[in-house]
Task: structure prediction
Amino acid sequence: MCKTRFKILSIVLSFVLLFGTLFVPTSAIAPGDVNYDGKINSRDSLLLRQFVAGFDRHVAKSADLNNDGKINAADVLWLRLKIAKHDISAYTEEIDASFPKGWRRGVNMGNMLEAESEGAGGYRLEDEYLKVIAEAGFDFVRVPVRFSAYIDSSGNIDETFLQRMDHVLNACIDNHLGVIFNIHHFDALMEDPQTNKELFLKMWEQLASRYQHMPDSVVFELLNEPSRNLDVDQWNALQKECIALIRKTNPTRDLIVTGTNYSNAGNLPLIELPENDKHLIVTFHYYEPFNFTHQGASWTSGTSDLSGITWNNTKEERDQIDWTFQNIKAWSEETGIPVLLGEFGAYGLVADMESRVRWTTCVRETAEKYDFAWSYWEFCSGFGFYDTQTKTFNPIYNALVPQKGEN
Ligand code: BGC
Result:
């Protein structure tokens, strides 16, 4: 009796295995076909992102796109690149989940929404740029925004401008790009923090509420480069107050926080943050040697008359970058807070392209060595790597996204 039962059971099992293999052969599910519907598209991307974010979702083994035995943020990135039809094998480096959110490469949409008004800096943030950026192998964009130009005296943000923001954020999502947006150029706050801090908080109250249902690929950055009269103590207090305010509507959204003195690396150890918040990423900006990266710049003091300063990739020059980044890494390991190099770049008015490429390569490689995500300043304006007229890239692009066989 027992034998017969066993026989029946093994026949049933063989059938299950045979037909199971015939109908859903695991090996036949293409890597990235997360919902195994025979297509690889934005539905797979959404499902995978939800799974990685901890939602109760079922994903096929094929979601392990990089085949490392784990399904995590790195796979989200692989899938995004795959959908953007970017040749993943073209990369020399491995994509790895140790970067914040699995993001590695980003670009600043500079001189667009943070200009006096959109377009006044020479560029509008066109949707087609986002497509170019995604296809060029970037994971995210940083969108600096001069919200203070669109508020009334009580801090209410203009609805038409908010609708423009809605569009920009949705266009990033449609292009499978992560997006960080911030409050940029709030000069009044830097000049007179006490008088203007309520306006700052009022803006975040509205933004946090409006965008609370956006996917987790939308990240808020509190303030660009706290500086001038906004000193360490005032900024520490205001940053904490702002985090608490945003947490009321966005308990788990990643927030980018920073230190004073223009997000200078040396000021990181002075930052005070709330304990037990696991969704903070710290950012710093790097433009050293400043006289090299800002030669010819009219908006920073003492740089407009500079020219002919080269960066030669000497050991001494490289060590200077490494030393700074190594210290930041040590701080990050101590605090457990991941790092974004939110801005770096060399202005192109008078600096020679060879030096700019050498410097950009070195800074980018050093950031990656220490698992910092990075976003280059900037896409197409004075520091940029893309010509919107000719639709071509300059050599800075290859310094940022090296193709196979290149360093
Ligand atoms: C500023 C830009 C400037 C860039 C490089 C950014 O933080 O907002 O106006 O071009 O730094 O100096």
